[in-house]
Amino acid sequence: MNLKIRRYRWSDLDTILALHQICLAQVGLFPGDGVYYDDDFPRIQELYLVCGGDFLVGEVDGRVVAMGGLRPIDCGRAEICRLRVHPDYQRRGYGAAMLTALERRAVALGFHSVRGDTTLRQEAALALYARQGWREISRARVGDLIVVYGEKRLVPAAVLDA
């Protein structure tokens, strides 16, 4: 796997916004559907980085093809959001690599659990979360969509190394 994961830079903004739009359109999600939003992108520094979270991008040959954010909920929990892989680069393990990197970063930042959501339309995301040990905690109807909420308890690296 030649995916290189690094921290978001301001110069990535247009690229990750386009990636977000491409990935959601691929599964039929669009502005106005009740779950689609992108107002956090111009505020990544404020909403993810400065407040104790992180935002990662994955590159292949210098091209950003994946991303994911880690946004604090409270002192012990964070939300994993904006997990995206460009359609041309899917089914190569990049989503799992990004999710693992975000979970490890959450542990390093002191979080004991992560939460996230996706829709029933995003079957690959649902399968990824299940493979990575997430458990479904609830579902809700939003417009014509079913949103699936999940969580995972994190194990500190020191416990894994013992």
Structure description:
It is globular and about 40 Å long. The longest helix has 15 residues, at 94-108. Helix content is 30%, strand content 33%. The chain has 162 residues and is α+β, with helices and mostly antiparallel strands. Strands 1-2-3-4-5-7-6 form a seven-stranded mixed beta sheet, with helices on both faces.
Biggest sheet, strands in spatial order? 1-2-3-4-5-7-6
**Helix/strand-derived class?**
alpha+beta
Strand content: 25-35%
Distance between the termini: 28 Å
Q: How many β strands by DSSP? A: 7
Identify the overall geometry: globular
User: Describe the biggest sheet?
Assistant: 7 strands, mixed
Count of helical segments?
5
SSE run: EHHEEEHEHEEH
- Our Rg estimate from Cα atoms comes to 15 Å
Query: What is the residue-mean pLDDT, rounded to a whole number?
Result: 92
Helix share, percent: 25-40%
Detail the poorly predicted runs.
none
Break the fold down into its secondary structure elements and pairings:
Elements: E1 4-7, H1 13-26, H2 44-49, E2 54-60, E3 63-72, E4 77-85, H3 94-108, E5 113-119, H4 123-131, E6 135-142, E7 145-153, H5 157-161
Parallel strand pairs: 4-5
Antiparallel strand pairs: 1-2, 2-3, 3-4, 5-7, 6-7
